[in-house]
Amino acid sequence: MTKKQTILLDATAISRTIARLSHEILERNNNPDNLALIGIQTRGEPLSKRIHSQISEFSGTEIVLGSLDITFHRDDFRDRLVVPQVKGTDIPFTIDDKIVVLVDDVLFTGRTIRAAIDALNAFGRPKAIQLAVLVDRGHREMPIRADFVGKNIPTHEGEHVAVRLKEVDNKDAVLLLKYDQAK
Amino acid sequence: MNLKKLPKKLVLQGGTILDPLSGRSKKGNVVIERNKIKSVGSTGGAKGETKIDCSGLVITHGFCDVHVHFREPGREDKETLQTGSRAALAGGFTRVCVMPNTSPPLDTPESIRFIVEKAEECPVHIHPIGAVTKGQKGQELTEVQGIISEGAVALSDDGLPISDAQVMRLALEYTSMFDKPVINHAEDECLRNNGLMHEGEISTRLGLAGNPSLAEAIMIQRDLELANMIQAKLHVPHVSSAGGAANIRRMKKLNPNITAEVTPHHLFFNDQALLEYNTNFKVAPPIRTEDDRKELIKAVKDGTFDCIATDHAPHTIDEKEATFESAPFGMIGLESCFGAVNKVLDMPLKELLKLLTVNPRRVMGFEEDLFKIGCAAELTILDPAQEWIYKEQNIYSKSRNTPFIGEKLKGKVRYTISKGTIADLN
Amino acid sequence: MQEKHLLGLEHYPAEDIVSIIDTAFSFREVLDRPIKKVPSLQGKTIVNLFFENSTRTRISFELAQKRLSADTVNFSASSSSLKKGESFKDTVQNIEAMKIDAVVMRHPDPGASLHLTKYVDAVVINAGDGTHEHPTQAILDMTSLQERFGKVKGLRIGIIGDIMYSRVARSNIYGLKKLGAEVILCGPTTLIPPHIDSLGVRVTHDLDEVLDWADAINVLRIQLERMDRGLFPSVREYRNLFGITSERLKKHKKEIVIMHPGPMNRGIEIDSSVADGKEAIILDQVLNGVASRMAILYLLLGGKPENN
Questions:
Q1: Labelling B28: which of A146, A172, B88, B286 has CA 20 to 30 A away?
Q2: Which chains have 3+ CB pairs within 8 A of A?
């Protein structure tokens, strides 16, 4: 298979988008004391940290921040991985009666988010769960919708959206990858 | 295997006639008339008579196995005298001695008579071995004279060692009146420590209780010393250890009445074979190390062992499909014997055949010259060079418990002639 | 994972042992959650087949299975038809016919778990087969060492006591050697199996030598019935020679981590002051037992070979 890649968002565009997402989250939830940010491993975790620092900056409030690994909650592990790469969950606060904002890089089928909501149940009963994603690329297989979307990128078959973040990949970019089925 | 009655006259044409008694061989025909040897060594074609083309084959004495278990009476689901006879014919054996560990054991003159009478109908010669002690309990002697007069050829408690040295002494002394050998399963039961396999590196890795070589060597030495003191006939069965073989080699110089046997499986396998817990390798005494195996082969070649005996021990599939710990000891061995020992011993055929014919017959006091004119025909016709894979379809025993399945063997029995019957194994 | 079953560590790939230990730490985090359950093995059915009593191992496995949301059935020899004369093969084939995904088996006979694989298609996990192996115990022991020391490689481990009849010892030896630890065995001569040095371990009968050398010791349970067979003469003498007491430990400057697979004979192979002391990680072993068994079940039942 060959691969063509187009840059959809560069580093500047990404930080602008994150700033906008942070504002939207604050606008929607006027009491930041009751907010919790939880990033989904792997790339949702650094994204949530960036949003967290923006929110602190804008509101002057230090909201609680955690990370969630949903490996053990996936329903597609059996078909995908030999040995799962587990990054670990760290939620050092109670989520009971909090408004939890889940943060992930790409929203696609919705299965990751379903697993994440499922996994959150093990930690308590939040008042509400909201979802913030950097990219929504469509093709949902679950009745799931994001509350905060950085950029909508409708994709076709053979296309894939890849998010690169400095913390994981040493650079910031959102790429559209096109695969040609080589015979 | 096709079993047929011998025709009135049968010519075994153009084979190599190998007489293990004299050690001589020649090309020619063997003629059998009315089930007896008519002539040996004639040449030329025979017209109008039933003949078997033996060109490229060796015609020799029928084999004799002094140690088999045919399970009758009591465990006819494993083997009977009839099915055991078929296994014997398939292996080239025309004469076997059955052990007394039946249910009930062969410890009375009546039980010996039962075997002798039933054996008459069988296509091979079957001789019972009587128990040394009542119920094989190792305490009170059986009616040795009665047992022998009914046809027992030796005395043994088979798998149960006579632990009490005084009982063993009495058995050797008493039996010496009748000039029959005593056979004692030589293992010190305490030192054996309920061992399931040879005690060594492999048993430690498998976590299986080990049976040390010394359990055998010590008991063999005890028996040899007692037999030497009395100058009694002692036959040591299925020697498995280098130490046991060394003791026999040494003591044989002092007492000419000592004889000993070794099994094909102790010559063929070593304890590495047990690494997968295959219960078909569970035998008593156990299969030991490669060093032991090499020493056993050496002992065959230097005459320490008089004969090869299979210790043919049938068990049901159900019993052998248990875990290693709960499976019974023993494997069948008649059908695979010649191909196995011929392959692994790699010695001159006339020497090897002695171990299967003249020597075991001498141990038990049977007729040794089977090419004598007028002698009832007991012959085996074999191809010593044929290489073949031993398969389940080569088994005629009622049981299937053998690890030789799948092994490449060398030398195959083609015909066995015994008691007026010819078994065609082609 | 390269192997379908977990029968023992003697032939188990080292990298898979490492994967299990890594995954076990992820499950340790799950066990710290308010709700300690994940849906990873939803819809999978596991039979715990115990032909020998073992409350601890069975509970540990059962808990691991429940926390992975698997359905479990317990089958113990006392409630089974084995007592009615049914063969091992019939028993296991009957269970297999009920469409199960895995069997966790404890059996008194060495090799029983390998034997089981001949009759069932399900994944087989050996929860102890006679005096042969107890791989899940060794893995939880290594997980505990990794937790305590941050590594297993290069550690010096003493295994103290009845090596002869110990499946824990055998599996620990294989596992520790594979992960690069050094192992020394210490016990009465009568309880050291022949040719054990062929497994790449040293043997000593001097406990002080081990205490001087080791980073951690794994103290095995001494079965008191061994005394009846003359393998050691008395509890007093055993304690004098091989008992881990505070006085004995005080003679050595270095602190040594103390492990015990349980159940303990307090006052015989180990003193209460040691078992409850700060260097003992015996209760961590219990918790790591659940996490390790979760990891094993998850990796053996959850994954299948990746095609791309």
A1: B88
A2: C
